[in-house]
Amino acid sequence: MSDVLVILGHPDGDSYNAAIAQAYLQAMQKKGISATLLALGELRFDPVLRGGFRKGQALEPDLEEARTAILAARHVVWVYPTWWGHWPALLKGFIDRVFLPGWAFAYQENSPLPKPLLAGRSTRILTTMDSPWWWYRLMHGRAGHRSMKQATLQFVGLSPVKEGTLYRCRELGEKERDAWLEKVKKMADKDAKGLLLGRKELEAASHSRV
After folding, report:
1. Which helix (H) or strand (E) holds 61?
2. Three-class SS of residue 162?
3. Range from 154-163, 189-198, 201-210 carrying the lowest mean pLDDT
4. Handedness of CA 145, 147, 152, 154 (dihedral sign)
5. β-strand partners of 39
6. Whole-angstrom Cα distance, residue 126 to residue 8?
7. What distance in Å separates the CA atoms of residue 176 and residue 190, rounded to the nearest whole number?
8. Could you write out the DSSP letters of every residue in 4-35?
9. Quick count: other Cβ atoms within 10 Å of Cβ 197?
10. Which domains are present in the chain?
């Protein structure tokens, strides 16, 4: 399995979001870090959590493999468009089906707050939207970002959460889109430095115990 898992939440594998995912993935690989792409549009699974948390729903093989990849990763990246101020239904369905009690978090006696079970992994959000930043912030209160960052990723222990957002995407020409892909690569380079540093610290700690 890979140190970095890039999850593409856009259903179209030929989308600009797919290009963003590839730019980040390849930048990581150039730094010598193992990285894998998980394109949700290629998975076969029911995105509806039909019984809620009330009763179980067997995971499809693709979701079992996705869980294994998340557990193996030290850094998880989420690439998706922001539609209607939120994530695509495909990504929401994936999270509903995968981030379940007993795997992503655990209820605790005498506490209203569950225990996060995916701690020890950093994460990054890379999202696009057609709205300008000021409209999204002032009118929507960054609703999609807050939901993904605080109510989902940090809730299950993924932290720290870094962000990269491309606004007014519909208005951008090819040069501007290419320029943002270069920014994505620089984000990946910074994230790679953190992962490499963490690897060295783990190796040093391992040697000191010998």
Report:
1. helix 61-72
2. strand
3. 201-210
4. positive
5. 8
6. 10
7. 21
8. EEEEE--S-TTSHHHHHHHHHHHHHHHTT--E
9. 10
10. 4-209 (3.40.50.360)
Q: How many CB atoms lie within 10 A of CB 69?
A: 16
Is 16 in contact with 169 (CB distance < 8 Å)?
yes
Q: Residue by residue, what is the 3-state secondary structure of 121-167?
A: CEEEEEEECCCCHHHHHHHHCCHHHHHHHHHHHCCCCCCCEEEEEEC
pLDDT at 96 over 70: yes
**Strands, DSSP E only, in 151-205?**
161-166
Structure token pair of residue 69: 């990849």
d(CA 2, CA 33): 8
The answer to whether 126 touches 79, Cβ cutoff 8 Å, is: yes
pLDDT tens-place string over residues 60-77: 999 999 999 999 999 999
117 burial class (0-12, 13-18, 19+ CB within 10 angstroms)?
Answer: middle
